[in-house]
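User: I'm putting together a teaching handout on how multi-component assemblies are represented. Below are the sequence lines for each component of a complex, exactly as they appear in our records. Could you produce the 3D structure of the whole assembly as structure tokens, so the students can see both representations side by side? Please keep the chain order the same as the input.
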Amino acid sequence: MSEQHKLPHEQIVKIKLNDEQMRENLSNAMHTLQKNRLKLIDEKFNDWQGLRERAKQAKNNALMSLNERLLEFEKNATKNGIQVHWASSDEDACEIIYELMREKNISKILKGKSMASEEIGLNHYLENKGLKAVETDLGELILQLNGETPVHIVVPAIHKNRYEIGEIFKDKLGSELESEPEKLNAIARKHLRDEFEGLKMGLSGVNFAMSEEGAFWLIENEGNGRMCTTASDIHVALCGIEKVMQSFEDAATMVHLLTPSATGQFIPTYNNIITGPRKNGDLDGPKEVHVILFDHHRSDMLAHEDYYEALRCIRCGACMNFCPVYDKIGGHTYQTVYPGPIGEVISPNIFGIDHTGDILNFCSLCGRCSEVCPVKIPLADLIRKLRSNKVGQGKNPPLGANMLHHNAAEAFAFRNFEKIATSGNLWRFSLSKAHYFNWFIQSFKNTLPVVKKWSQFKDLPQIKKNLYKELENIEGVSCE
Amino acid sequence: MKKVYLYATCLGTAAMQESVLNSVKLLRREGVEVIFKKNQTCCSQPSFNSGYFKESKNIALYNINLFEKDYPIVVPSGSCAGMMSHDYLELFKDDNNFERVKEFSSRVIELSQYLDEVLNVNYEDKGEPIKVTWHSNCHALRIQKSIQASKNLIKRLKNVELIDLEYEEECCGFGGTFSVKESEISNAMAREKIKNIQKTGAKYLISGDGGCLMNIAGTMSKMGLDIKGVHLYDFLVKRLEGVKI
Ligand code: SF4
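Assistant: Of course. Below is the structure of the complete assembly, with chains in the same order as your input.
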């Protein structure tokens, strides 16, 4: 993780809000994704809500029997000739990959799109050991060339438009300056073909692992993932333990929700179901397939009465596509691997609320994310609960909560608010002191230096009437 | 004779008193008797959304004790109605008081739902023909689900043309304490909303939520635009009385 380079919250917000180009690119892209999704659900699905409920149940079943599922997966995958590795931490997972590379004397791997590899900080880890991981997903490639991290979990370079991408290709790959999508694609294809030649080890993520089959399912749109998983001698798949489900049918339910939610496509361009290495007589496919099952605080989440729900996430990105905050500030402002509403829930749980807790502010609790999430994760409720953990309330706090510094002045303001709001006399007394509505804001003025800015942007209404007196004079109204 | 409690909300008692009085008028017009509890305060949304659950529970219990009789609690705000009819249940999920909370919550209804669904009001529009657009409050839309009822009331006015607002379901950036803590992001959201409001060509923005109105109309007035934000219940009364807006 690149958290060493974190900027102060206010500063990064300011920088990104002022990036007009990014905001325009994001707003256009997000609105297109929203429309595609709504149109598809409207035209192609008879019972979208029923499918959501089924997916929620299937995923919950898998989570509630996760131990069993994992062991079953291991047994059946091993039978299929897949080598299963276990990693409890992010470091462990990186180390397993590193050891595999060392054993085979490999200095470069090619990667299909995988947020899991971002989560464990793989590129950085290998780089420090003098090894290289090359991105093959078009979006990821653009970002790697430009020294950036993904801004979105599905469409990593969605904040860039085609003109900007043309510039990056010209600068970093020495190509002609182009802006037509076809030409840009051709440049990337040529570059990647050279990389794919002689490929020894390919790395991918996993969308769904099926315990009964001992196999896993990968979906993608570009075909580069298929190259990484079949053209190499060795294929390594990184799989968070929550991706394991019971049956092929359960996984199929999820795939039916995933692409429509993500991009508004009915089905993905490529469905890769991987059941093991090349068998005798097979013409292609890797000679070895490895799966790394990693935990990285997922079991802690699973044990939590509320936050376990976030483990249902299928990484479709719909919650960020519909988030009115995300499209104003972009994913980098979150300064953690997973941005948007789901990021606000899992980042504090995976990386610690002490240094990712500030992103809990990036939510007006409008509830749109919970509404669109295909697996019905109550994102807004969970964000609110994390806020409660952040201020030192709530049961069963997440990772890093004991390291938090609590804002005593804010807590005092809310205790004061409670005092006024539970006494009619105090309430009316404080209203009589207020010339504007801002008494409410006034109560926070010692804690929140931004109050002035609020009124900088908005005119406040004035109080004109004595409400209580007027009410008493209306016939048919009794003031008690 | 129908009898209801009116829950004025904190914004109503503090700043939007006109709207509270007009809410009373709309109920009286239908012959409903209104009980106004003088000691009423706030539904606790600011503390709830900021994560101060302990304080919020105490405020909720205060309200539950105050509105003790069996009357419906009519709230002229989808946001506060949603808080009391839905979020209180979440807040008290594992609490001894749950049954009491549930009884209270089941009596909470948003004013437009009460007018449209319970009383099925008949409105004669005495105003000039005008075009208006509508802003949906997020909590009213997704939690209290009172937006349809609010729009139904506007649609009963024959001289009012309701123009669809593009991206209506996007938050205006108020979110209570959010607009204070992240004032710059909130402002960016309000501006985006206003851009779409301008595109409708309507000169009036109607909304059933005081907070959103304060946010959007306050920003529009700061920007010097000639679009006016009007609270739904002020709007209705003016149309029914034929008074200029
Ligand atoms: S939380 Fe829901 S909407 Fe967001 S990425 Fe995960 S599955 Fe998709």
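A couple of points students might notice: Chain B touches chain A through 75 residues (CB under 8 Å). Residues A 261, 313-319, 342, 373-375, 377, 379 surround iron/sulfur cluster (CB under 6 Å).
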